[in-house]
Amino acid sequence: MKNKSSKNHAKGAGAPVTVLKSFLYGILSTAVIGLALLLAGTAAAYLTPDPTAFVEPLGFVTLFITAFFGGFAASKINKRAPYLNAILTGASFTLISTLLALALPHTLASGTELLPRILLRALSLATFPLGALVGIKASKPQKRKRRKR
After folding, report:
1. In this predicted model, what pLDDT tens digit does every residue of 27-46 receive, in sequence order?
2. Which three-class secondary structure string do you get for the chain?
3. Which class for 133: exposed (0-12), middle (13-18), buried (19 or more C-beta within 10 A)?
4. Residue 135's closest CA among 73, 86, 50, 80?
5. C-beta of residue 23 within 8 angstroms of C-beta of residue 89
């Protein structure tokens, strides 16, 4: 007779395959959400008389909205460990986006200093678990109160 606990562990939240798969889906969904929001932000910026004035603020707003919905999506992907998936996805997404931002030559030449940018990106990391919290709360069915007659 096989041990049931080892079989359940392979399908559990802590199994390496499950964590890796949900992590990859979380990164992919966060990247898709971010791309869609960047396109919307770009369109909004070009509707203004001076689009360059809105590039950096819209970029950070997009970053925070992406982080929130990325955490939300990560919590929906792995329902057994939603916070773990949101934190892993958030840390990886923040690291990747920060490294890509630093690799672009115009990033260092723009108006905002480097330290505030890095701090804002680190602060966006805290938005992933917040999105996961909302995702968990949204997935639980609400109990209806019975009306007294």
Report:
1. 898 899 999 999 999 999 89
2. CCCHHHHHHHCCCCCHHHHHHHHHHHHHHHHHHHHHHHHHHHHHHHCCCCHHHHHHHHHHHHHHHHHHHHHHHHHHHCCCCHHHHHHHHHHHHHHHHHHHHHHCCCCCCCCCCHHHHHHHHHHHHCHHHHHHHHHHHHHCCCCCCCCCC
3. middle
4. 73
5. yes
CA distances from 142 to 137, 138, 145 (A): 9, 9, 9
Query: How far is the CA of 115 from the CAs of 67, 92, 95, 100, 121, in angstroms?
Result: 20, 19, 15, 16, 10
Q: pLDDT digits over 4-27, tens only?
A: 444 444 455 556 667 788 888 888
Provide the whole-model pTM. 0.74
For residue 130, pLDDT over 50 is answered with yes
Percentage of the chain modeled with pLDDT above 90: 14
Contacts 24+ apart (CB under 8 A), 40-46: none
120-132 average pLDDT score: 88
User: Hey, where are the domains in the chain?
Assistant: 16-136
pLDDT of res. 9: 45
